[in-house]
Design a protein that fits this description.
Blueprint: E1 6-10, H1 18-26, H2 29-34, E2 36-41, H3 43-52, H4 59-62, E3 64-67, H5 82-100, E4 106-109, H6 114-119, H7 127-134, E5 141-146, E6 149-153, H8 160-165, H9 169-187, E7 193-196, H10 211-225, E8 230-234, H11 236-244, E9 250-253, H12 256-266, E10 272-276, E11 281-285, H13 302-316
Parallel strand pairs: 1-2, 1-4, 2-3, 4-11, 6-9, 7-8, 7-9
Antiparallel strand pairs: 5-6, 5-10, 10-11
Helix pairs in contact: 9-10
Length: 318
Amino acid sequence: MLKKPAIAITMGDPAGIGPEIVLKAVAEPEFTRNFNCTIVGDATYLKRVADALSLSSEIFDCVKIEDRGILTESFTVGVDAAVTGRASAEYIVRAVEMWRQGKIDAVATAPISKAAIKLGGYDYPGHTEFLAELTSTDRFAMSFFAGDLRVVLLSTHLSLRDAIEKVKAGPIAELIRFTDEQLKRLLGRAVKIAVAGLNPHASEGGLFGSEEADEIIPAIEQCRNDGINVSGPYAPDTVFHRCSKGEFDVVIALYHDQATIPVKSIAFNSGVNVTLGLPLIRTSVDHGTAFDIAGKGIADEASMKAAIKLAAELASYK
């Protein structure tokens, strides 16, 4: 019998929907049947949430809890607090420790609040940068997987004006090489890369801008000369659809919303955030803490389920 992949699932911010979606996800029989899941969080609070959701106590017979016992102060659901920020950060720290100790094969993370972790003494823009420091990783990139559509982002949280300034041949070529290297490692095979254009219709031969001719095409040609299977630039309004239909393995997107709009249009509740470049496999939901619905029992766990499944799938390629 093949060994079941061991996945650490961080509980996320206790004041958000993280505990709810994690418990709903692992309550599915297929998760305990196919994966060895360990929730990194606070056992007492998880059991309280399970009771509120009317989930059977048998769930805790099938799923391990790495109990951190950090929630020693009261807090309000749906509100940022130092205690919840510190707790959510410590869950991440412990998950990385478990990976270093060889106890798990991959990590799937529930959402955290950037404001709360800062209140708790951890000043990071988000999971990605925090995990990069914990694993001494210098090169990393944000990507999203939505079925056959995979996208890697040239820039993330910047104004559109600033993001356009980042569309330069050097960084694009570097990202193409990095994507080729990382996707080959994660998927265990050669990959076909497409690069999106910046302007409408990829500028249509220079009619709508010069970035394609001046920056994007030279980067692509340089990488093709290095033996990388990359092509483009393609019209941004069609290339993501083409990738979702299997024509490409991944698309290089040139700014945040160019990537996330197609991902969320195709897989709003089931897209997965994958951090490229880390020595460990890390997947995450593609949404935030949703403080406005936290504690109401109505959060959709589809993205959490997808993140756990993808973590296990990628771990199997190692």
